[in-house]
Design goal:
285 residues, five-stranded antiparallel β-sheet, 10 strands
């Protein structure tokens, strides 16, 4: 069952009790993100495959989920969230992914860069930069954590670029400077995608592009590339998280390949929840 977050309504949970079943302690609720995210659909499958009949998946947003997580951790309260890595929450908090013996969430994912058809012909310099863009989970986490601590995403991106100029120079080597050509990037407003999209935007600006960024939910983001309403996105988590949209719009975009390897999605809990180590533990009485 998937339920929305009701504004102004929250349950004050007690401190985590390791010797009691976790379900009643969290009102049989998994705190999720936006309903269109692939990991939400996967979590619905997990609820069925693990026979979590009493459990419900609560929709919210990336920021609302992490805010709720932070409050729970501050008070050592139990909480189960949809998690993904890279994400600053795994750097800021002591969290663990729950084991997934049935393999519902699959193996580690990769994040791909996807562009509209015709971009290579229309904006070859931008295409080259986008095609070369790649970085690591640790590098992405640096930008995410800076933004979480209050830095403007654009400033955080530029700070990272200055610290990794040699790497960025590889992305722009031989790229001719353009004169204010417009390019539009769309993205999902997850902390990870805010980080990557702003880094790419600043690199494109450095070679003369006038870059527009637009935040969207996942389905409209993919549609924007397929319909050529936008030029590119660097947010395609594959094969699972974005898999349904990859199949839906197959043939209407160009996949430039992996820009980050080893991303992970699953259910996560604070490490102080010592008796909850597997999704199967959610059913223990």
């Amino acid at each position: 069952m998937l339920v929305p977050v009701l504004a102004g309504c929250s349950t004050q949970l007690a401190e985590y009790k390791p010797n009691e079943a976790v379900g009643p302690q969290v009102d049989y609720t998994i705190t999720g993100i936006d309903a269109g995210a692939g990991e939400m659909a996967t979590t619905q499958k997990a609820i069925k495959q693990y026979d979590l009949n009493k459990w419900q998946l609560q929709t919210s947003s990336s920021s609302a989920m992490t805010s709720t997580l932070g409050k729970a951790i501050k008070n050592r309260q139990p909480i189960v969230v949809t998690g993904w890595q890279p994400h600053w929450m795994f750097t800021k908090y002591k969290l663990k992914f729950l084991k997934d013996p049935k393999g519902v969430y699959g193996k580690a994912e990769n994040i791909h860069t996807v562009v509209r058809k015709g971009l290579k012909h229309d904006k070859p310099e931008a295409y080259t930069v986008l095609d070369r863009f790649h970085w690591t989970k640790e590098e992405m986490s640096t930008v995410m954590l800076a933004v979480n601590k209050g830095a403007d995403p654009k400033q955080a991106a530029n700070k990272w670029i200055k610290a990794h100029q040699q790497q960025v120079n590889q992305w722009t080597a031989g790229v001719k400077h353009v004169n204010g050509d417009a390019i539009k990037l769309t993205y999902v407003a997850w902390d990870s995608e805010i980080a990557s999209t702003n880094v790419v935007a600043e690199v494109l600006r450095s070679v003369g592009y006038k870059v527009t960024l637009q935040s969207m939910e996942m389905q409209p983001m993919w549609a924007s590339i397929a319909t050529k309403a936008a030029d590119a996105q660097v947010c395609a988590w594959l094969p699972n998280t974005s898999g349904v949209y990859y199949k839906k719009y197959q043939g209407q975009f160009v996949d430039l390949g992996v820009n980050l390897r080893g991303a992970k999605v699953g259910l996560a809990v604070p490490t102080y929840m010592t008796k909850v180590n597997s999704i199967e533990d959610l059913n223990k009485k």
